[in-house]
Design brief:
Monomer. The protein is an alpha/beta fold. It is built from 9 helices and 6 strands, in the order βαααααβαβααβαββ. The structure holds magnesium ion.
């Protein structure tokens, strides 16, 4: 069955989960003391959006959100701002799997991203990709290959089928012509309920999935056919 559009998850699907946990999160946590004392009006206005009860100790609040991997929209926005600086200064490059880069470059389907990381963070991740053939050289900008980005602010939670209904409406494509690839069974179930095609990404470093619930799996995007993606 052919697909017109492919929606990609990020963590555990196009790049290792460890990139977020071991690179991006620590980079952000190290900047928390600076953020809390920042005089930058952009930073201050975002910090003010945290609930009143946390305003007395925003540093601990943010640390706890990061430690517990809470998908908090305010936190995500701040992280986007901090990571932007890391990427543009060359301190961070995203380690996309080489087979993903090749797939994106040759895909004839329209490519979209849906991640709980903010759209801003997603754009950065694809704008500063480590070149597998030259890791210390200039990064690759894959943004031109991506038609659109979705996050929990634009579309809702990734485990809700309504979110996928909304996305296929946004991209004006019939759900059965859309393939969603993710490492998360709950996300795949939600997408399937909305009528999308699905593939379960199996990648090194992902948690073992005891029950695949019958989802088709993909270990390398090199196995996705040139035209049909499955
Ligand atoms: Mg994932």
């Amino acid at each position: 069955m052919s697909v017109e559009a492919v929606i990609l998850d990020i963590e555990g699907t196009v790049c290792p989960i460890s990139f977020v946990k071991e690179t991006l999160f620590p980079y952000f946590v190290a900047k928390i003391p600076e953020l809390v004392h920042s005089n930058d009006p952009d930073v201050k206005s975002v910090l003010a959006q945290f609930p009143q009860q946390y305003q007395g100790d925003l540093g601990s609040h943010m640390q706890s959100l990061v430690a517990n991997d809470v998908k908090d929209p305010v936190l995500k926005q701040l992280q986007g701002q901090v990571w932007a600086e890391g990427y543009t200064s060359g301190q961070i490059k995203s380690p996309l799997y080489p087979d993903v880069i090749e797939f994106m470059q040759r895909s004839s389907s329209k490519l979209y991203i849906y991640s709980s990381g903010s759209v801003q963070a997603q754009k950065l991740l694809f704008a500063y990709v480590e070149d597998p053939s030259n890791p210390t050289g200039p990064s690759l900008n894959l943004q031109p290959l991506i038609k659109g980005y979705f996050d929990i602010n634009t579309s809702g939670k990734k485990v809700k089928s309504h979110s996928y209904e909304r996305i296929v409406q946004d991209i004006k494509t019939a759900p059965q012509q859309v393939l969603f690839i993710s490492d998360n069974i709950l996300e795949l179930k939600a997408a399937q309920e909305a009528g999308l095609q699905t593939l379960l990404a199996i990648r090194p470093g992902n948690a073992t999935i005891p029950d695949m619930h019958g989802f088709r799996t993909v270990e390398s995007f090199a196995s996705l056919q040139r035209r049909n993606c499955n």
